[in-house]
Amino acid sequence: MINKQILITLSVLLIYFPSLLQSQDLPTNKISQLVEDLKKDRRGPYHRIKWFCKDGSIREPRDPCPDSIGGGIQHASYKDIIEKNAKEHHLFFGDILAFTDPSSFWDEKNAHSRLKQYQLARYLSSVDDGWILRKGRYYRGSVQSEDEEAWGIDFYKWLLTDNERIINNYYVIRQSLRDIPHDGDNNLAQQMRSESKVIADEFPDFMDLRVKIHGQPGREDIALVQNFRQQYATKLTPELNQEFEKLEKTLLDFYAPVDFDRLKRQINKITTDTPTKQKILTFLEEYKNEERPENMVPVIADLLYAIREHSIDFKGGANRLILLDFSNELENILLRKSQEWKPDELQGLLDKIQALTYAAAGTGLVELWECTSINSLLENYTSQNKLSIGDLTDFLETSRSILEWSTAMVKSKYEHDVNTYGSFEPKAYGFIDDRIRSSIALSMGESISRLGILLAEKTSLTNAVLTLSNQSSFRGLNPGYAYGELVVVEGTEEVEVNSDKIYVFQKPPSDLKPVAGIMTVAEGNLVSHVQLLARNLGIPNAALSDINLQELEAYSGQKVFYAVSNKGNVILKLEKNMSPQELALFEKEQRNTDLIEVPVDQIQLKNTSVLSMRNVNAKDSGKLCGPKAANLGQLKQMFPDHVVEGLVIPFGIFRTHMDQKMPNTEGSFWEFLNTMFAEASTMRSNAKDEKLIEEYQLQQLKTLREAIIKMPLSKEFTDQLKNQFTTIFGGSMGSVPVFLRSDTNMEDLKEFTGAGLNLTLFNIISENNIIEGIKKVWASPYTERSFKWRQKYLSNPENVYPSILIIPSVDVEYSGVMITKGINSGNHNDLTVAFSKGAGGAVDGQAAETRLITKSDDKLLAPSRETHYIRLPSSGGTKKYHTTFETPILNTKNIEELRKIASIIKKTIPEETASDYKGAYDVELGFKDDKLWLFQIRPFVENKRALSSAYLQSITPEIDYSRKLALTTKI
């Protein structure tokens, strides 16, 4: 499934990203059937056993590779269909590692997809009785374990010699060590969960214990499993008894006492002597008899951090392999000890969360620079005797952020391949959850939840979300309230949304149509178009955890009331439990008063000349053109070196073309449009069902949209456009790549923002594409999504006029959005910024690097978790790149530039435009070679009704943030 991450049309994506075409064409039904066939095949994905010689030749089983050519190894060859899928769809089933080229397996150009598929296959094998090797694993000689392990050792010696590979891919490399055969690998934590899942699937009475093992594992599980087996002895089949024996052995191995002498022998094999090696040996000596988890966990966390920080100080792939294997064993110890550490005072809980934060960095779940950015805050709070409620709230929010960054790391690294496999093997979707549960994120989440519960008790700022177990992980993003059917959307499948329903998304679609309310696991960023629309329109929006989403599935399809307060507490209750005050919020008379009118009294349709952007300014917004062009023209006058040149196709040119006769109708395009609205009005007056009216309008708009795309453009206009293009951009059409941006009079009204509703075409260059693109942009306000938003919130949606802004492309290195206020804090002296690498950053829901910038400080709210970005080559189109997260996107110089430009904007824009606007601005911008480029500015519109609602005020308790709590407080 295509993941829509950038503001760009699907057609442009498919033209310039052939790999997405491949994904689009993946024959999922055929592959799903192939998987089922392979499960039943006694040879699985394999064809025949053959000799594979070192000179590249392949020989029959009875014709071994002679020593004269270097010998060889014997294993299975692949079925033709397996090799075909690898070649055509980059799908690797039943990978045999021996004799596989290391660089091909590492698969760097495809974000290590082949390696990750190998991990996925190992997971599927563990939870689905061998998966495609259900019978093929018994095909004698198909895979030689000693050859696989020898290859694994050689692979890691090759892989780990490169410093950049380790720095850039630390998390994936450590995870792969748990799956790729080599001397010393094991993944007991996953094995334990897989075996418990297999038993629960076959024997439902075991489900409670399975939930315990998956969610709150501990040494006591050994006795619990043994007692369960005795209790149900008469009901267990011989096969189930075998599964219980395997699980008991795994539990005993996992919770066995640590063999410190063995670990010391392992570390002494490292030939490089470094301070980190000595630190490890000191730990193994001094803590071999230590049992207290509160003493062990902080030291192990610190050691994991040191190993990661200094891993490249160890020279040679062999030494680094020993080191990282030890790091994984150390993490296994930490997982057990962190579950055993159960603080009974606030001080211990804060210490534990701080230690697990270091462990998150040490295991690769967060980057070292990300951990450094918040360490001073956590350390400061854990060194005092008393803390204020405000300080504890900051600690909770910061630690919750670390947890969210950690789970987002797992998703970002594996989501693409999991979604690909999930399309033909749904069990693959469990992989990410399994990796999260096998990490310190599980214990960290439990500790943060305890802190959240304590603070909720002390402040009365509690969530009331049905009867869910972990209420503290809900976090309100936008205030508002809604009533409607609850729809839980698990995974990333596309759904047809309805404006009177409340949706819970794993990740909201970037082209979201109107909804009553939303909750998201992956919130994207604070300033994406979806978030801005939700904030502007008073749509309640909250973040939640994966576990919360799974628990809400039981309520999907039921009518609920949903509210988010101004301070972010969340209420979700069934319809039957609504109070009279809550029911009164949804009387139709009140809702109808909220419609907004698009002003058209000053629109100037007689101007039919293509304009230089230098000749328009903010006063022309809604008259000659939309606010994008008008405001950017204003910025060009104020910041000539930071704004590109531009052309403006005003409203008048669109209107003139709409007066042409529309094919297959009696009148013009404009008359067709107005007839449609008149007919809809008549249908309403005749009490027709609103859904029927909407269906009629959408069908008519589809007809209109298709006709506009085929509309002939006048020669006078195209000649003028070509002349102006050459004059303004210094090159003829076809030589300068440009953006075409829809710019309507419905955008950036005082009460409504049309952010992201209409079409932008990226970096197009040919004359034909520009001409055709103009008509596509004109047609875009009549798409279903754009129309539905207008129809829901505007009283005169028929009076929408598109102008077009044409600007040359700037191949920025990173780009994003700046809001000239602190969105969460409400402080107008602060800035909220979100940036992603490449073009189109942050606006379309990417997991962007988000910061709160004050006059003297810069707080990281979220790091980027987008693994792909686009650049804009001079040849036109877009080029896709893969990235990692080991360094921040914004640097110190960039942040200072943002402070300066924001200060000038806030002071100068009202002066230059003689405006009485007092609010914040929403600015789209980018950096190239550290130079700032401005692309758009608009008022930052918030929903005043939601912010001031008496009901929302009533559910927001007053909190004394200065009140102190002793760190000896019992929890």
From TrEMBL:
Record Gene3D superfamilies: ATP-grasp fold, A domain, ATP-grasp fold, B domain
> Keyword Aminoacyl-tRNA synthetase: yes or no?
no
Please report the stretch or stretches of sequence annotated as the Pyruvate phosphate dikinase AMP/ATP-binding domain.
624-946
Which one Pfam family would you cite for this protein? Answer: PPDK_N
InterPro entries xref list: ATP_grasp_subdomain_1, PEP_synth, PPDK_AMP/ATP-bd
E.C. designation(s): 2.7.9.2
The cofactor(s) it depends on are: Mg(2+)
Top-level taxon of origin: Bacteria
What broad class of enzyme is this? Answer: transferase
| Pathway, per record | Carbohydrate biosynthesis; gluconeogenesis
Q: Which UniProt keywords apply?
A: ATP-binding, Kinase, Magnesium, Metal-binding, Nucleotide-binding, Pyruvate, Transferase
Q: Which reaction does it catalyse?
A: pyruvate + ATP + H2O = phosphoenolpyruvate + AMP + phosphate + 2 H(+)
Molecular function GO terms recorded? ATP binding; metal ion binding; pyruvate, water dikinase activity
The entry's function note states: Catalyzes the phosphorylation of pyruvate to phosphoenolpyruvate.
Q: Which family does it belong to?
A: Belongs to the PEP-utilizing enzyme family.
Record's protein name:
Phosphoenolpyruvate synthase
